[in-house]
Amino acid sequence: QVQLVESGGGLVQAGGSLRLSCAASDDTFSSYVMGWFRQAPGKEREFVAAISRGGLNTYYADSVKGRFTISRDNAKNTVYLQMNNLRPEDTAFYYCAGDLGLAAKTTRARNPNEYDCWGQGTQVTVSS
């Protein structure tokens, strides 16, 4: 399984931006559907965004649509999450995840239990 390492989290004021990165350990990365999830204290892990293997198709939770953009660079084995117009309710630990068998357009791709590979996460804190 591919190993995943997130970076780019931090503290930002409401309305600000952050870009998260998730680097994969090897070139099998391009075979993985990738997703971003987040988990706030006391809450379940929730879907944020997913991207198809080639990067052409992207899917978002309603809560982030129009503010967040998922992208990937298969030559660099990296998936990104550009977060704009951040809100205090976006505060959470953000995780990237990958799976070989999923199709990004399906509802299964929004279920964290369907992903085999996970990074360690990165904290995003948005102050009001």
Protein topology:
Layout: E1 4-7, E2 10-13, E3 18-24, E4 33-39, E5 46-51, E6 58-60, E7 68-73, E8 78-83, E9 92-99, E10 117-118, E11 122-127
Parallel strand pairs: 2-11
Antiparallel strand pairs: 1-3, 3-8, 4-5, 4-9, 5-6, 7-8, 9-10, 9-11
Summarize the structure.
This protein has 128 residues and is an all-beta fold. The chain is built from no helices and eleven strands.
Put simply, the count of helices is 0
Reading the helices and strands in chain order gives: EEEEEEEEEEE
Distance between the termini: 39 Å
The percent range for helix content is: under 10%
Question: Would you write up a description of this structure?
Answer:
The chain is mainly beta and 128 residues long. The protein is built from no helices and 11 strands. Strands 2, 4, 5, 6, 9, 10 and 11 form a 7-stranded mixed β-sheet that branches. It has a 4-stranded antiparallel β-sheet with strand order 1-3-8-7, with no helix packed on it. β7 and β8 (78-83) form a beta hairpin. It is globular, with a radius of gyration of 13 Å. It starts with a strand and ends with a strand.
Characteristic terms for this protein:
128 residues, mainly beta, 7-stranded mixed β-sheet, 4-stranded antiparallel β-sheet, 46% strand, globular
